[in-house]
Specification:
Number of strands: 3
Structural class: alpha+beta
Helix content: 40-55%
Largest sheet: 3 strands, mixed
Distance between the termini: 57 Å
Strand order of the largest sheet: 1-2-3
Oligomer: single chain
Length: about 110
């Protein structure tokens, strides 16, 4: 193996390690945020914020990080039926969004 191949391999490994650490950090941040939202929901503090409910009257809650791709938000909304009370963790705090309908494949 040439010196250049060894260098390329080392760089590739370093990039992979950095990407894994970044992904682990984001997963940990999302998990911590989900736990914080769950704890706050349990106190009833957010009851007035939960304006979106499904056909059964259940307020679907979707916590997301502002660093996540929008495709994750859309997938999460699809997973809960297209509408939810979305809480976005940002560097400046938490933003609450009421998504009444998300249907990206529907024709206008």
């Amino acid at each position: 193996m040439s010196e250049q191949d060894k260098l390329d391999e080392a760089v590739e490994h370093a990039v992979e390690v950095a990407a894994n650490k970044s992904a682990e950090k984001e997963i940990r941040e999302l998990s911590d945020f989900e736990s914080a939202i769950d704890e706050t929901l349990a106190t009833g503090y957010l009851d007035d914020t939960l304006t979106v409910t499904d056909a059964d009257g259940v307020a679907q809650v979707l916590p997301v990080l502002d660093s996540e791709p929008i495709s994750h938000l859309v997938k999460g909304l699809k997973d809960v039926g297209g509408s939810a009370n979305v809480f976005v963790h940002t560097a400046d705090g938490v933003v609450a969004l009421s998504v009444v309908e998300c249907n990206p494949n529907a024709e206008e």
